[in-house]
Amino acid sequence: MQHFDVAIIGLGPAGAALARQLAGNLSVIALDKKQQQGNRGFKKPCGGLLAPDAQRAFIRAGITLPVQVMADPQIFSVRTVDVQSGFTRNYQRSYLNIDRHAFDLWMKSLIPPSINVYHDALCRKIWRENGLWHLTFCAEGAESTVTCRYLVGADGANSMVRRVLYPAHEIRKYVALQQWLKDRHPQPFYSCVFDNATTDCYAWSISKDGYFIFGGAFALKNSRENFEALKMRLEAFDFRFGEVVKSEKCTVLCPSRWGNFVCGKENAFLIGEAAGFISASSLEGISYALDSAEILSGVLCSTPDNANTVYRRKTRGLRVKLLGKIIKNRVLTTPWLRKWIMKSGVAHIPLTAEKPTTAARA
């Protein structure tokens, strides 16, 4: 049975960043559901926007994004729509428009060959015995079992590692539904949509490489019906839904309290969305995936005896920041507070030819 210092489950942005940073310091095995290249295999449904905090993580690492992960066009404002009040406002945002699948594959390509990476792999079983973590996985047509000192769950919202560590843990979940449609809008735009009649979270849209991507996070019950109902309600705001090219869905976490953030125990660690590190106000998770991976790499490379305690302490600032996002979420999803903020016009950037209108006036 082969033994490693670290086993990483999942090679999204969190796992790929950690594997890259551990190379040359520890022996590492990494398992990922995606294939090594191409469009086959697992794809993360995502609007594909890279936030400023994620950009700063790449600056710290001295990494620049290649042109093949970028999408067209680059949009620097978000059209925020409150369906119930009828208000529409434009706010400046410095996101980068990316191809999420190409981005994930590029992140994996940065992992040095010294890391033992298994693509298109499925982890079947995880258990702890005699002070070591054991895991059984299927890859390359065979089943294997390895042991490791440190286990890292970077396996997203439905994290298997989190379920093993915290079988009673509960966190608010939504179904993220997303469609790619042929774009019929005269001008590309990015939007953030609030409508308490269909979801107590929010929806989004983004123009990308000739497509119009529309998605939203909905309660598990009647999610498809609410998704379609929201599309109909947005026609009053000049949203033009053309032919559907493909549909996607996944589970997304939305933390609602401090206890939703779990860092791990017994030499097992959680990073990214597996730890609950995702913004409750925007569902943006790449920034926190990169930040938590950077923190954990520093902890593991120093190999302290109390690694879990050190990691928990070093992520406190990150968790406090995410607690602020929970508060922001409660404000934005409360209709009267959201209406008051949008009606005030604070930070709104009117378009040159824009007339102060609401859906009701239209």
Topology:
Blueprint: E1 2-9, H1 13-22, E2 28-31, E3 49-50, H2 52-61, E4 77-82, E5 87-92, E6 96-97, H3 100-109, E7 116-118, E8 122-129, E9 132-139, E10 142-153, H4 160-165, E11 173-183, E12 190-194, E13 203-208, E14 211-218, H5 223-233, E15 241-253, E16 264-265, E17 268-270, H6 286-302, H7 307-314, H8 316-332, H9 335-344
Parallel strand pairs: 1-2, 1-10, 2-7, 4-12, 10-17
Antiparallel strand pairs: 3-6, 4-5, 8-9, 9-10, 11-14, 11-15, 12-13, 13-14, 16-17
Helix pairs in contact: 1-6, 2-6, 6-7
Organism: Kosakonia quasisacchari
Family: Belongs to the CbrA family.
GO molecular function: FAD binding
Q: What can you tell me about this protein's structure?
A:
The chain is of the alpha/beta class and 362 residues long. The chain has a domain at 2-49 and 100-170 and 257-330: FAD/NAD(P)-binding domain. It is 27% helix and 30% strand. The chain is built from nine helices and 17 strands. The protein has helices spanning 13-22, 52-61, 100-109, 160-165, 223-233, 286-302, 307-314, 316-332, 335-344, and strands spanning 2-9, 28-31, 49-50, 77-82, 87-92, 96-97, 116-118, 122-129, 132-139, 142-153, 173-183, 190-194, 203-208, 211-218, 241-253, 264-265, 268-270. A hairpin with a 2-residue loop joins strand 16 (264-265) and strand 17 (268-270). Helix 6 packs antiparallel against helix 7. The longest helix is centred in the C-terminal third of the chain and has 17 residues, at 286-302. Residues 357-362 have low confidence and may be disordered.
